[in-house]
Amino acid sequence: MTAPPTTTPALAPFATLADTPDVAEVRARVRRVLAEHVTPERLAEHDENETYDLELYNELAAAGLIRLETEIDGRKAAHQSQVTVLEELGAGATSVGVSIVVQYMGVELLHSFGNSAQRQEFLAPLLAGDARMSFALSEPDGGTDVARAMKTRATRRADGSYVLNGRKKWIGGASTANFLLVLARTTEIERSSIDGITMFILPRSTPGITTTPIDTMGIRALEQADIVFEDVVIPAEFVLGEVDRGFRQVLATLNGERLNGAAVALGIGRGALEHAVAYAKDREAFGRPVGAFQALQHELVDAAVKIESARLLLHNAARTSDEAEGGANETLSAMAKLAASEAGTTASDIGMRVMGGWGFLRQLPMQRYFRDARLYTFAPLTDEMIRNYIGEKHLGLPRSY
């Protein structure tokens, strides 16, 4: 053929590791939902129009893929289940996958630190898919070092309630979420400390909250927003966990967030590679498929090796985190996130170059993979900070920051 179709046909996914029966069942469930509800045209439409696919989210929730194994007052979802869901979504419905990373984080925080009343009011509908949350941490002056740069303040009043003022930036889904988890400084402590910050549950309908969409390059089907809080009153019962210990509570969830971000990045890489290989088999130049040229073959192979290596690291890290009695192997999770980030950016970059001008076509998904993969070079932590962490914790090198 002389050109790829305007819509890319569904491709058989690359072989995965031998899943356990439980993981295989989760993977099959995700794929059934995606096969029934997702088309290339639908993905392109939401990306182009910058609209969130709420219908797909609802279908995933109805299939139990937000709840997974979580019980309100019992066990948590397995990391292996979460990363399986997110890899499958990353390979196609990437923006929905990114939003579910946030939902899983909210589930973790409410399950770990919420009291019984908070779990019933906020966690139960979140697990059922009847509510969505947004996590408000980053600020205009602070991303990686947000605790020390935090300017958002919550002042306690005589009746025990708080008044919240400040700004947050890059907050996914903030305009349409049912509630926010907001971090704000409640006690002035020396700059070097991460204490003095409290986490609040804040219904989105609370007066004094203004959100403004941000026009972003990637993950366009999930709104990113600026938030302004002006004299927002928060009842005392909406403090989540311990006063002044909120940032430490966030740190306790970072292992899972790294794993889940890695899973989406891995899925992006897998999706990009699948489309690039399909194109290389079908596109002809000089009388043969371009995939027959050694230079292109080698680059596609390099991408495949990065993807399979990242998958091995990811599932090993998820498994050991599920099995760990004394805590998760956070260094292994950091390695998985770094490997998956590089796999996603490498595969999407190679895919763009394999497809040439066709990679630029907005109707085809390669340019979307290329844009979306860049998110996980800096989220939830920058790759540079991940390297710093691994250098210190795994190699025993002096702290570099």
From TrEMBL:
The keyword Oxidoreductase applies. Residues 244-393 form the Acyl-CoA dehydrogenase/oxidase C-terminal domain. Residues 134-232 form the Acyl-CoA oxidase/dehydrogenase middle domain. It holds the Pfam family Acyl-CoA_dh_N. One of its GO terms (molecular function) is acyl-CoA dehydrogenase activity. Keywords: FAD, Flavoprotein, Oxidoreductase. Its cofactor is FAD. It comes from the Bacteria. Residues 21-130 form the Acyl-CoA dehydrogenase/oxidase N-terminal domain. GO terms for biological process: butyrate catabolic process; fatty acid beta-oxidation using acyl-CoA dehydrogenase. The keyword Protein biosynthesis does not apply. Belongs to the acyl-CoA dehydrogenase family. This is Acyl-CoA dehydrogenase.
